[in-house]
Amino acid sequence: MVETFRQIAEGVAGYSLSNVSDGIIILMGIVLILILIVGIFALGVQIVLSLKYHKYNKKQNSINMTGEDIARKILDDNDLQKIKVKTSGSFLFGNSYSHYFKKVRLRRLTWKKTSVASLAMASQKSCLAILDKENDPDMKTRVKLTPFIYIGPIAFIPLIIIGILLDFIVIKAQTPVATITCTVLGLLIYVLSFIMSIMVLKTEKKAQSKAYDVLRNSNMATEEELTMLKELFKLYNIQYVNDMIISLLELIYRVLLIFASAQQNSSSTSSD
After folding, report:
1. What is the count of structural domains for the chain?
2. Is 192 contained in some domain?
3. Which residues form the domain of 170?
4. Angle, CA 79 vertex, CA 101 and CA 83 arms, to 5°
5. How many other C-beta atoms lie within 10 A of the C-beta of residue 206?
6. Residue 126 confidence (pLDDT)
7. Is 208 exposed, middle or buried (0-12, 13-18, 19+ CB in 10 A)?
8. Are strands 103-107 and 84-88 parallel, antiparallel or unpaired?
9. CA-to-CA dists, residue 15 to 36, 57, 86, angstroms
């Protein structure tokens, strides 16, 4: 089994890992298998979500209002006139709410469409603004941690580069102590960011529940439409969790690959 995992790891890495310990090879093999399993499941969820979104984005909503009008009405009804509603064609922001810019962003696919999908996205993102206004404790935590959530994954690679530069230029030691230290530090920051991302999902689900209440109480959606919204939101939640898991597994694999490369280079140096 170890040799099979070694062959798989070498195939992915693109170079020999013959001098890497069996423990690291087994861990690399397990992580790669998990990435494959979760990736296949995530692909299936993505396909179902795309089909559902396409279907509901073609279905007319019962109030004949665009995503922009729906978001504006919900915000105004909750004394949030200061929150702007803007279109976003980017994949970075997409359908979102920004506490810092006081803005609800909607993709062009839902911005001017009078569809059920527009109803779902506009109401849910507007309800994030309502949670913010109400000083929801989870939302307050999310707002405080937002910069860290995004900086965490970005900081990982620069920290490794800093460690490598310290080892080769400043310390000039045979053992890559700084690289290992910075890698572990980057991993810890990433794991913290991963844990904090759970808070984002928690507030998204709270906003979804609030959207059901807002739409039902204001007669902006039928029970059939609310059922459709629940289907969409459930798929989005599953996709979000899948993305988090895959990102974490990929990070773990990269860390293992760094340690494997260090072992390989160390063995090569010793033999020389």
Report:
1. 1
2. yes
3. 2-59+137-271
4. 15
5. 18
6. 97
7. buried
8. parallel
9. 20, 47, 48
Averaged over successive runs of 10 residues, the pLDDT of the chain (272 residues) comes to 77 76 86 93 94 94 96 97 84 76 90 94 97 95 77 70 77 69 77 78 95 96 96 94 86 80 64 50
Residue 90 lies in a domain: no
Query: Could you tell me which residues come within 8 angstroms of residue 258 by beta carbon, excluding any fewer than 6 positions away?
Result: 160, 179, 183
- State the pLDDT at residue 28: 86
Which residue's structure tokens are 């935590």? 141
146-182 burial code (b ≥16 CB/10 A, e <16): beebeebbebbeebbebbbebbeeeeeeeebebbbeb
pTM: 0.80
Q: How far apart are the first and last CA of the chain?
A: 30
151: left (phi over 0), alpha (psi -120 to 50) or beta: alpha
In angstroms, rounded to a whole number, what is the distance separating the alpha carbons of residues 206 and 191?
24
Please give the Cα distance from 267 to 10 (Å, whole number): 17
CA distances, 147 to each of 82, 99, 129, 207, 264 (Å):
23, 12, 18, 20, 37
Token code pair at residue 226: 């609310």
Report residue 203 CA to chain centroid gap: 14
Strand partners, 105: 86, 96
In a domain, 114, yes or no: no
3-state secondary structure of 18: coil
The answer to whether 190 and 158 have CB atoms below 8 angstroms apart is no
Which of helix, strand or coil describes residue 149?
Answer: helix
Residue 80 lies in a domain: no
Query: In DSSP terms, which residues pair with 85 in a beta bridge?
Result: 104
